[in-house]
Specification:
By secondary structure, this protein is of the alpha+beta class. It has 2 helices and 10 strands.
Length: 176
């Protein structure tokens, strides 16, 4: 006969065999992003991006500017003609500082976060950068939300029209 303590130990070992061998990882879900498309207002040969920094600020004048930290997936990266940022959350104000192939480092105006998935147009000028932040209510910022809003409006209009016609026909048939 097997003692009760050995049975309990075997049962625990059997149950441990079904536990995962590695730690479970959890993600916090979708993260806000910023995409920067560059267009050039320079004469002569076009310049390419060699490096860049996205400064975040809590103050509207960016007196407390600090670079976006690289933490896990949070980072600011640049290609030769575009940049993008992914963060756990952005501060309200920002400024870009981009180094170009002509050896010049240009700084942008201060701009605000334009939504969860923000898309900006950056104009490269001879001495600086001009970031055009779209309004939060433009279809470019929330294209899917605008489609859903229009679909809901059309559905509401259709239901209202159908209810009106039904009421009209019911009342008309009662008169006859």
């Amino acid at each position: 006969m097997i003692p009760k303590s050995i049975k309990l130990s075997l049962l625990l070992l059997f149950l441990l065999a079904f536990l995962p061998a590695h730690a479970a990882l959890a993600d916090t879900g979708p993260k806000p992003t910023m995409d920067f498309e560059f267009k050039q207002e320079l004469t002569g040969e076009p310049v390419t991006i060699t490096a860049g920094v996205l400064y975040e600020c809590a103050q509207p004048d960016c007196s407390d500017a600090s670079p976006l930290e690289e933490l896990g997936p949070q980072r600011f990266t640049c290609e030769v003609d575009s940049c993008s940022a992914l963060a756990y959350g952005f501060r309200p104000y920002h400024r870009l500082e981009i180094q170009f192939s002509d050896g010049q480092t240009r700084q942008s105006n201060i701009f605000e976060t334009a939504g969860f998935d923000s898309k900006y147009t950056v104009t490269v000028r001879p001495q600086d950068l001009l970031v055009d932040a779209p309004s939060i209510f433009t279809p470019r910022v929330f294209p899917n939300a605008m489609i859903v809003l229009m679909a809901c409006f059309c559905a509401l209009l259709g239901v209202g029209l159908l209810a009106g016609v039904t009421i009209f026909l019911v009342r008309r048939s009662k008169k006859n």
